[in-house]
Amino acid sequence: MLRSRWTKVAVFLACLLPFFRLAWRFYTGDLTPNPIEFVTHFTGDWAIRFVVTTLAISPLRKLARLPDLIRFRRMFGLFAFFYATLHFATWFGLDKFFDMHEILADFSKRRFIIAGLIAYLSMAPLAVTSTQGWIRRLGGRRWQRLHRLVYVTGIAVVVHYYWLVKSDIRLPLFYGSLVAILLLYRTAVALWPHRAPAVS
Amino acid sequence: MLIQKSPDIRYSEVTSKALYLNRRRFLAAIPAAFLGVRAFAGTKLPNLAKSPFSTSEAENSFNDVTHYNNFYEFGTGKDEPARYAQKFKTDPWTLSVEGAVAKPRKYSIDDLLHLAPLEERIYRHRCVEGWSIVVPWAGYSLGALLKQAEPTPKARFVAFQSYYDPGQMPLARGSGLDFPYIEGLRLDEAMHPLTMLTLGMYGETLPPQDGAPVRLTVPWKYGFKSAKSLVKIKLVEKQPPCTWNIANPQEYGFYSNVNPAVPNPRYSQATERRLGEFRRRPTLPFNGYADQVASLYNGMDLRKYY
User: Fold this and answer.
1) Residue B306 lies in a domain
2) Per the structure, how many domains does chain B have?
């Protein structure tokens, strides 16, 4: 089933559902008394969910013996970048209204914004080089090394979220644990490669 | 596109408030007539006197003010208090005034409603998170209550305590804060005429999510200083501990006066977004009440005493 073209189409549409839901809430004026904050949090939530999902693909392929999951990894990664871009643009354009004075002050002083910026900037080159053409141009090995940047993304988004919340740290800890498990699994595989289950 | 939308909705909501209140008054009258219950959330407060402290700025809609709340005992999401506080039992209620006073006393809400003439005061309310609202509160200066208690010379600070019941507030545990919620003011701040003992808003008693049945309103300080659902006011000699200050002393100082020049590590504080407006607006020192309250802090370094 994972190999079917239609599965890929269905997954693609499912990934767009949050965006359509947001558009619908905008259309019906259902964006809470603070719409800009709501859109910022909504898009941020989905960005972090897609980052974690993307990081989960490789371990899941091995552990669940579903090698075909690889067909969705790029899509999830690009959706993470898509929602992160909406998130960043909402903050930059709607919340701060392109006020460079405030934005630069935030970049230098607010640690959660610095972490968010690192997360976003680490995703950009991965999105750009996600095509077959770029894999060929860089060569598989170098491409793979570059795309390890996603580990930085995973850590930075969690730190961004953790530093943002005031006292209720349950969700940042939840995502943090997921990222920790996924990265520790990779570390374990790298340290004891012979123990990793074979992948076809 | 957001630009065009928000103000239009806001004003239509303001206009429809009368209708809304009418319905509330009607609904409120039913149990009152049959059970003799008085002053629960949504009861009309008649004959509110106008106050010279009121701002002429446009009020936020009742709907915005009741559906965008920080009341962590009922959940940390802004929409959660409106959903989870509705069954909050606020009758009977006792507010105890105690400590360094000649006349300690326990007050019922009925006592408080008749302690001084109720005024409507339209105040700006600025949250430390960078949003603000304009609310028509109903109540009177906290000083009226404190004077009745007759503070002794030992009284230099006032400690406030909010109601806490894990049974009624099961979401409080996940908030990361220690409850009951406690706050504090210097005695001169508490006695300042702008500081309100608030029993209502929008011409009716307080809804649960906005701090029913009685709360504090200190308009020149960040909103978290205005403790909700008060059960205890204690006059004390030393500066009392405060919930947010305990949770994160670098960010939430004892004074927490609204100050655009002193950034919070998380929020710049130079600007704020008034709910219903698209663009941020500059934040004013002491939330625009500097003329009345700046003298309370003469000679104090407000960067140090943030």
Assistant:
1) no
2) 1
In a domain, B300, yes or no: no
Chain A interface, mutation test: which of B78, B132, B243, most A Cβ atoms within 10 Å? B78
Distance from the Cα of A103 to chain B's closest Cα (Å) equals: 10
Q: Which domain holds residue B52?
A: 2-295
CATH number at residue B102: 3.90.420.10
Q: Kindly give the confidence (pLDDT) of every residue in chain A, 200 residues in length, as a single tens digit, with 9 standing for 90 and above.
A: 788 999 999 999 999 999 999 999 999 999 999 999 999 999 999 999 999 999 999 999 999 999 999 999 999 999 999 999 999 999 999 999 999 988 998 888 899 999 999 999 999 999 999 999 999 999 999 999 999 999 999 999 999 999 999 999 999 999 999 999 999 999 999 998 765 555 54
Alpha-carbon gap: B141 to the closest alpha carbon of chain A (Å):
29
Would residue B151 be called left, alpha or beta, if left means φ above 0 and alpha means ψ between -120 and 50 degrees? beta
Nearest to B31 by CA among B22, B42, B45: B42
- Whether residue B303 lies inside any domain: the answer is no
The interface pTM score, or ipTM, of the predicted complex is 0.89
User: Which conformational region is residue B153 in: left (phi greater than 0), alpha (psi within -120 to 50 degrees), or beta?
Assistant: alpha
- Binding-face residues of B in 229-258 toward A, CB within 8 A: 247-248
